[in-house]
Model the fold of this input.
Amino acid sequence: MTPNWRTSSYTETQNCIEVADNDLTTVMVRDTKARGRGTIEVQRATWTAFVEHTRRRQH
Done:
């Protein structure tokens, strides 16, 4: 499956991360300013736990 990259919804500029979450099992993350330097690929459940933890920490 070809990654469908989008800028993170948590950023107000293009200087953050891009996320490809169109795969049912994995989420890919890369640096917006250094796209060619590689990606991080994590299981969807791990990504969901990370996002939920981050949301709790902000409140």
Notes: The helical segments are 44-58. The mean pLDDT is 87. The chain has one helix and four strands.
